[in-house]
UniProtKB/TrEMBL annotation:
<feature type="transmembrane region" description="Helical">
    <location>
        <begin position="497"/>
        <end position="515"/>
    </location>
</feature>
<feature type="transmembrane region" description="Helical">
    <location>
        <begin position="456"/>
        <end position="477"/>
    </location>
</feature>
<feature type="transmembrane region" description="Helical">
    <location>
        <begin position="196"/>
        <end position="218"/>
    </location>
</feature>
<feature type="transmembrane region" description="Helical">
    <location>
        <begin position="230"/>
        <end position="250"/>
    </location>
</feature>
<feature type="transmembrane region" description="Helical">
    <location>
        <begin position="344"/>
        <end position="369"/>
    </location>
</feature>
<feature type="transmembrane region" description="Helical">
    <location>
        <begin position="301"/>
        <end position="324"/>
    </location>
</feature>
<feature type="transmembrane region" description="Helical">
    <location>
        <begin position="65"/>
        <end position="85"/>
    </location>
</feature>
<feature type="transmembrane region" description="Helical">
    <location>
        <begin position="38"/>
        <end position="59"/>
    </location>
</feature>
<feature type="transmembrane region" description="Helical">
    <location>
        <begin position="399"/>
        <end position="417"/>
    </location>
</feature>
<feature type="transmembrane region" description="Helical">
    <location>
        <begin position="547"/>
        <end position="563"/>
    </location>
</feature>
<keyword id="KW-0812">Transmembrane</keyword>
<dbReference type="Pfam" id="PF13520">
    <property type="entry name" value="AA_permease_2"/>
</dbReference>
<feature type="transmembrane region" description="Helical">
    <location>
        <begin position="423"/>
        <end position="444"/>
    </location>
</feature>
<keyword id="KW-1133">Transmembrane helix</keyword>
<protein>
    <submittedName>
        <fullName>Amino acid permease</fullName>
    </submittedName>
</protein>
<keyword id="KW-0813">Transport</keyword>
<feature type="transmembrane region" description="Helical">
    <location>
        <begin position="262"/>
        <end position="280"/>
    </location>
</feature>
């Protein structure tokens, strides 16, 4: 019975099943996407909420050095992108990382990964919808249209702001003297209509944009592609304006010190920076709608990562060069704030308008990805048949698209932005870790290597992984005077859980070093696995706890439904 949990679908079986599905009437989707379209989808997904909102708090935490964190994270994504490209060129199916895990790691791992992809796409879209709402409301205010505060944010943020602002106002401070977030939250909670003592505070614009995007995704891939391409072109033009104009106002002395809060301050922004790269893997979910997925998906992934990393680094350096990093704390619209700082309100207005465009395109791509993963899981029997239903006219996964809209739109009404960013980031990194591990396992069979049109450059990892482990362990150990305190931290203190998480990372690294030596593993997938796993360790114990509960819920659903209904059963 234990072995049945790890049953796998062979590559030949997956491809033959796909050919059978496409022969059925209504089973085939329209193939409209080329390299340019896929690259634009990657850019749309990557450059979204982060460059217009999360980049501000990340810069406040780490200073100009956050630009290097973007580079480091991009390297991790690049290693992972090689692995995604390897799988996409071997298994050109819409299931993305879920399908890849099914061929290499087994069914239960594939299910858990698919369950976490729900975390990546659906919850990421909640975050994007919330950010879109913020910029849209600001844009309406600039045009003279006021949206009531209680319809523009979540209940939790409003209540926290009300509880924090009330004693300050009672002490004699004025409402205008409060931070803008406190002021808006206080007004939202105070002015909200009440039902049975409960204040109705909900983010209505976030719901409405989700409904609109879901409709666009529902009616066809061609319409979605054309809309996205236009939005991305506009987005890139505005970012070029931000960098070009902002460069003339940079004060180099603001880059000193480069890391004002040290390495810990930089690493504090790991969740936000990882969130910035969420979505590059969404390209692989459209494999069944690509003209040549085995050739085009690998190219598009690489181009999207390179373009976006260059833009993130340049924007971060311009932002921290104009505004000292400590002044960016709590600023939700840092790019608009940056131009207001140098008395360029016109450019700030353009940034606010472009943010609405940028976030719309990101929302569009995320809403495309999730239904196609559910469709593939349904075809395997792990989800009900309705999820694999293809619309007879539009050739899109109709029921899955509607369900995605519901699961994004309803939480977007009430969710808190910071919480969903952290939870989404750890789920995404987990998916990246498993994709890298899947390539290592898949390539142990030489026959599998022959079936791929994309080859990861082979560098022998046998010695380097072990040497790097020894060096890293030596650098992380305390000096002789601190051994007692260091050992005691495993049993007591606020960082106890973090110490155990890091110890687990070093144990996994040691095991990987052993297998790298005995099986002469490829270095790039090993590096991808280790870097993504390290970034997971920096997410904090609270996020790990929530992530564990989420995985546990997924396992319960698997044994309650998916295991029995699986077509491999």
């Amino acid at each position: 019975m234990w072995s049945s949990f790890f049953r796998k679908k062979s590559i030949d079986k997956i491809i033959s099943d796909q050919l059978e599905i496409e022969k059925l009437e209504g089973g085939q989707m329209h193939r409209n996407l080329g390299v340019r379209d896929l690259t634009f989808m990657g850019v749309a997904a990557i450059i979204g909420a982060s460059i217009f909102s999360a980049i501000g708090q990340a810069s406040a935490n780490g200073g100009p050095a956050v630009s290097m964190l973007f580079v480091f994270t991009a390297m991790a994504c690049m290693f992972t992108a090689f692995c995604y490209a390897r799988f996409a060129a071997t298994v050109p199916i819409s299931g993305s990382a879920y399908t890849y895990a099914y061929t290499s790691l087994g069914e239960i791992v594939a299910w858990i990964l698919g369950w976490n992809l729900l975390l990546e796409y659906a919850i990421s879209n909640v975050a994007v919808a919330i950010s879109w709402s913020k910029y849209f409301v600001d844009l309406m205010e600039g045009l003279g249209v006021h949206v009531p505060e209680f319809l523009t944010m979540d209940y939790l943020s409003a209540k926290r702001a009300f509880n924090e602002a009330s004693p300050l106002l009672q002490s004699g401070q004025t409402l205008e003297s409060l931070h803008v977030n406190l002021r808006e939250g206080y007004l939202a909670y105070q002015s909200a209509p009440t039902f049975l003592g409960w204040h109705f505070v909900a983010n209505l614009p976030a719901l409405l944009i989700t409904v609109a995007i879901t409709y666009l995704v529902y009616i066809g891939i061609k319409e979605s592609k054309n809309t996205n391409n236009i939005l991305v072109i506009l987005k890139l033009l505005v970012i070029a304006i931000v960098i070009g104009v902002g460069a003339f106002y940079v004060q180099v002395e603001n880059w000193t010190p480069f890391a004002p809060n040290g390495i810990s301050g930089v690493l504090k922004s790991v969740a936000a920076v990882c969130f910035a790269y969420i979505g590059f893997d969404s390209i692989s979910t459209t494999a069944e709608e690509c003209k040549n997925p085995q050739r085009d998906i690998p190219k598009a992934m690489m181009w999207a990562l390179i373009i976006c990393t260059v833009l993130y680094v340049l924007v971060t350096l311009v932002l921290t060069g104009i505004v000292p990093s400590q002044q960016l704390t709590g600023i939700e619209d840092p790019l608009a704030f940056m131009f207001m700082k140098v008395n360029l309100p016109g450019v700030a207005g353009v940034v606010a308008a472009s943010a609405v465009i940028a976030l719309t395109s990101a929302l569009l791509v995320y809403q495309l990805g999730q239904p196609r993963i559910w469709m593939t899981m349904s075809r395997d029997g792990l989800l009900p048949k309705a999820f694999s239903r293809i619309h007879p006219k539009y050739r899109t996964p109709s029921f899955s698209t509607i369900m995605t809209g519901v699961l994004v739109g309803v939480p977007a009404l009430f969710a808190n932005l910071e919480e969903v960013i952290n939870l989404s980031s750890i789920g995404t990194l987990f998916a990246f870790v498993l994709v890298c591990a899947g390539v290592l396992i898949l390539d142990l069979d030489p026959e599998n290597q022959k079936k791929s049109k994309f080859k990861i450059p082979y560098l022998n990892a046998s010695i380097w992984v072990g040497v790097a482990w020894i060096v890293a362990l030596y650098l992380s150990l305390p000096d002789s005077a601190s051994w007692t305190t260091w050992l005691g931290s495993y049993l007591d203190g606020d960082a106890k859980a973090d110490h155990w998480i890091m110890t687990g990372f070093f144990v996994i690294w040691l095991v990987l070093a052993f297998f790298s030596y005995t099986h002469r593993l490829s270095l790039i997938p090993v590096l991808g696995l280790l870097v993504n796993l390290y970034l997971m360790t920096q997410m904090g114990a609270t996020n790990w706890e929530r992530f564990a509960y989420w995985c546990l819920a997924g396992v319960m659903i698997y044994f309650g439904y998916s295991y029995r209904k699986s077509k491999l059963n």
